[in-house]
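Record type: monomer structure entry
Structure origin: computed from sequence
Chain ID: A
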Amino acid sequence: MTYGKRLLALMGIDTFIVMSAVFIGGYLIYDTNYIGMPIIFASSLTLVISHHLYAHLFKLYKRVWQYASINELIEIFKAVSLSIATTGLMQIIVFTTLHSRTLIITWMLHILFIGGARFAWRMFRDTYMTSSKNKKRTLIIGAGSAGTMIARQMLHSKDSELWPVAFVDDDMTKQHLEIMGLPVEGTVHDVQKVVKHAHIQHIVIAIPSMKKADLQRIYEQCIKTGVRTQILPLMEDLLSGKVSVSQFRDVQVEDLLGREPVELDIDNIADSITGKTVLVTGAGGSIGSEICRQIMKFQPARLILLGHGENSIYDIEMELKQQDSPTEIMTEISDIKDKDKMQFIFSKEHPDVVFHAAAHKHVPLMERNPEEAVKNNVIGTKNVAEAAHKNGTETFVMISSDKAVNPTSVMGATKRIAEMVVQHMNKTSSTKFVSVRFGNVLGSRGSVIPLFKKQIQAGGPVTVTHPEMTRYFMTIPEASRLVIQAGALAKGGEIFVLDMGEPVKIVDLAKNLIKLSGCSIEEIGIQYSGIRPGEKMYEELLKDDEVYPEQIYPKIHIGKTPEIEEAYYMHVLENYTRITSEDLRETLVNIANFTEKERVLTEMG
């Protein structure tokens, strides 16, 4: 029906309702004696005209009534009350009298008939056009505003495959009550009991602002039921409009292992990035690409994506160019081992800020190819750092690793030596050179999680090196945000260490992933394959003598690692091609573990 036809139909219905209300009200007061009374006809005409005027004023003819709610009822109340008041004013002015009893009854009938006519369509839609037939009986955890919104959408949507049956909520004041016609059946501890007696087929956790520890506690109760459990999208996605509240997603391991987000110092970061030229090496990688996404929020003048792999650089370039941003996106396909090319790019672009994320990070592969680790992680870093120094870069931030602490692997040793290179460069340059250490990131290409997921999809078993193997984890977005924050805090020479929270056993991570996949641990199985070359049982972020206990910013520490003279590592960079892999591996680890105390003892003879 077109808008014009719909408007005429509604006005016709309202005219009939108004006339009916007036004459029924008159009949109830005057019996049949009101017939022929001029005041009744004048009142009817005034009420009809004023009703249409106020209905237009409050947009009653523009509302979609199948979604009518309390707001529509309030607008009806306003329009009817004002039209009755206008009619009463007319009676006083024209007839010098006020038929108050008739007007009160007419007002009541007017609201009843108008509201009933409007809400009848919604009642019909809710009763006959939506049905629980062939829909999954759903338990909603959280009877707050998000939970009631979800319940309303499920009840009113023909397309939803879910049908709300009950709530559970830890708020004791809501127990034994009904919300949206659905009972609050208990607390989170009652989930298993509710699922069983209410024949629940699906669970939705509807508490978008809950802490990670609470989500883990709730999910542990849900997983015991064997029923698929989903949660609301991330709050930042809801606020940004990327997704709606009805777009549920499966619980992910990041939800269970992640920590509470840190509020960034937006002004400080903006001062260091907004309007400037920023270059990111390894921009196509997991960390590098996320750093680019986070940087875009601060609108640098130019963002240069530097990487060796053309496909990954193309992907992040296309993604960033889809954003509505004034930032100019530029790409450079190059290898950081190419010193001349680094000099050329930096002399051409003159970046103000550099985030150096390019590196070889796979521990076992680097054990077998130590010379490649030296070329990429150490010499590549030195090339980029020297290019930044020579071309006036303000801040250079190198992404390091927790494996650089007491390193036993080639990968960790080369990252520690790269830290030494950066620290030495800071002493001789106006550029502020800093390093940022953190542990494993969930979901990165080098993470164990993609491997575990593939093994689960193949039916198992999941392979874990050792039952006591422990690692630190954080999410890629959190790590990237903290790296950018550390860059804004840089004064030069620091090794920033991100607070990784509590370490996690790899076997517990594997068990969580198996449960999240909907399988049982017995069904998939876990096998222990033994510690691989170069791996440590536990990772550290700082040595005991390197720890400053206070945080300079939430979740960011400054390490007090000793600065090692360039001579103590330069000889291996100049001669690594002449050393056998086994000797090179040992030499790298020895250099990386070289301390200030050992330097003094060496100089003393």
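Annotation 1: The first strand starts at residue 136 and ends at 141.
Annotation 2: Residues 266-599 form a domain with the Rossmann fold fold (CATH 3.40.50.720).
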